[in-house]
Structure of Acetyl-coenzyme A synthetase:
Amino acid sequence: MSETTQVDGRSFAPPEALAAQANVGPDVYDEAARDRLAFWESAARRLTWDREWDEVLDWSNPPFAKWFVGGRLNVAYNCVDRHVEAGHGEQVAYHWEGEPGDTRTITYAQLKDEVCKAANALTELGVNAGDRVAIYLPMIPEAIIAMLACARIGAVHMVVFGGFSADALASRLDDAGAVLVITADGGYRRGAPSALKPAVDDAVGRSPGVRNVLVVKRTEQDVEWTEGRDLWWDDVVGKQSAEHTCEFFDAEHPLYIMYTSGTTAKPKGILHTSGGYLTQVAFTHWATFDLKPDTDVFWTAADVGWVTGHSYIVYGPLANRATSVMYEGTPETPHRGRWFELIQKYGVTILYTAPTVIRTFMKWGEDIPAGFDLSSLRLLGSVGEPINPEAWSWYHQHVGGGRCPIVDTWWQTETGGHMINPLPGVTSLVPGSAQVPFPGISAKVVDDEGNELADDSTGLLVITEPWPSMLRTIWGDDDRYVDTYWSRFGHMYFAGDGAKKDADGNIWLLGRVDDVMNVSGHRISTTEVESSLVGHPAVAEAAVVGATDPTTGQGIVAFVILRESGTDSGDELVQTLRTHVARDIGPIAKPRQIMVVQELPKTRSGKIMRRLLRDIAENRELGDVTTLTDSSVMNMIKEKLPAAP
Ligand code: WTA
């Protein structure tokens, strides 16, 4: 947990013009407080239902919630068809830009046709409602089309970020019991085609349940082909009819599984369902970003493979009939001004991104954004980790021209949608704090026993009432769902984040309190990296910590003990181990630093004292070492270390 909160006394009132026309005004908080369920019910009415619910919330079997009980809807119909039926077929849904500069403009009418064709194709391949479909694609429109096609026929999608390894993909295919994988030959990354199909071939080889692999042609790379199993997207989807009558599903019908790191080595399959999820992502997208469907150009610069992409590239924006930008590549390709060029080119009005990206831009310098016309921007958003006040100010001034409010949004894969954040037309912004619970959300800061804390004391963040887009369970593991989130405090949801609340009611998030690291906004478990390292024949023991990193928030630092003391512990081995982890889990899990040590600091009960390792990794004076079995261990480690970068 890091103390990143430096209140410097500044606050920024909402711009008058924005407040005067904001989608939600100050009354929204009172309205939600008066009757929380009626409030969410009116949010649900923004969607189109085939049948209304009989009951807003069934919490008779906590922590298993049912929202909008008895209601029926189709998520894809809400995201696409209804806008076309209302005469908005010609409106652009996505301005897509590939990394090499190729572009596609997709209107709502075109999106409807593509989704219907893909839905027909899935049915032809024998995919039924409730079946799991893995999507392992680059940031191309087919990723969205595939997600919506699944939703349309009631199949459960499971998007796996393209940066994950074959092993990570294989374990997810197996855990979810996927019957189909949708992938591409490759995607563009840092100016070059990067292959995806080989990882799929490797993973599917180990997953007997996968019947077919549907392959989108993106880079024209050569691919291995398994006859009878592999099919080209163009061949199967291209020939389908664009007519498809959608079925309506129960509000609690599963929509998707998204795997995220927990405190053990095995990722958790977070399950989201239909009605409550779409209600909250649509409403938060509309309120937090003050989205005006006729005039805004909205850009969530994240990957669809993460929950941010699911909720705020796909479901929220489409449910609100937004026009969005979608970009395939990295911010520095072919030059460091690429994002700003895109903002200028498409007239982006709302930009949503992560602090790690902002800090990277800070490093590159303010001259880069200054070289582009960013005057279309009117609102900025942040997600993924606390935004430090320096990054906040830089974002505010050099991207937002000093005129755009910044909404810092705290939420999680598990929460599905925004939970703690300011509202741009209402809240006076305090840089560095995510501020207040969203209307209809009840959050508290409590001590270890679950007692609410006095102002300014540091404790744990809990959510005290169920919310519409909450996870419903961990796929296939109800016990783990209960244990992980609900057993600590009984009927309160334990988020895993440290927090404090100040006298003005602002909540300051202080980072994870469990063994989960946050690297560039990605959650990676220390245990997962440790088990990968000990999986290498040279390693006997490993301890991994997240050390504060000026750009990525946290960097992964590993301490390893080798099997044989004679083993060469030089640079070459360290590089081999780093590559080993990257191959095992994915490049995002590659340790920033690996230190070979003789011993690890342990308590008398044998627990590794990560806190001390973190002190070392962050170049700090050592904290209390009295519970160590052997306090000389720390000196031995310190003497051996190269200076941290
Ligand atoms: C952290 C991403 C502070 C937090 C949507 C949480 C944040 C984890 C913020 C969830 C924020 C996310 N301020 N911390 N605005 N947003 N976090 O599941 O530790 O990838 O528990 O969801 O990121 O990460 P996840």
User: Anything to note?
Assistant: Confidence is low (pLDDT under 50) at residues 1-7. The radius of gyration is 24 Å.
